[in-house]
Amino acid sequence: GLISAFGSVPDVPYLFLGSATLQAIHIAVFVKASLYPHVSCIQRASVATGVGNFVGNKGGAAISFCVGETSMLFISSHFEAQQDQVKARNDDYLRIQECLPLRPCPHTAHLAIPGTVVTDRYDRVFWMGDLNYRVNGNRPMVDALLQKGLWEVMVGNDQLTIERRKGAVFQHGPFHEGPLLFWPTYRLDPHSDKYDTSAKARS
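The structure corresponding to this sequence follows.
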């Protein structure tokens, strides 16, 4: 398919390095062709955090490798949904951290200290996915804040921002998040750019 074709075209400056999958959670990594000869120690792993920590509709899929002597880790994840499930999302993060069975690259074997989490074993870590953290507030309140352009109020009530400040999640690293310059990713009405206007007012 696309990956095999993309990875085989001589003129394409990137080559397919590898992928990992956990049910509907996917991640694929491409590298510059000029760097490919310097890549080593490619590993793939996944951790389920769904029902009973067995079902893979929630969890994380990851790829790690070294470029020269720099170790890198990429994680794609899907955390628990619903407005009030903040602790469950935090628990998903921690389980992925503690249970991803990835070994340090030989260049960073000194980072394999007992009791550390997986992201402590790598020089560069990129964590992405559908984390499902919400803005604390109901839809009418959020709609009003959007209409008034009060972005800072929304960011101040962002669950992920709050949990990070408490040291409950993404406290390892430390991680750095880019500026939030996009509208909330609520569900939309079909074939429109309007937020869900049904009775459920999904958010």
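The chain has a mean pLDDT of 88.
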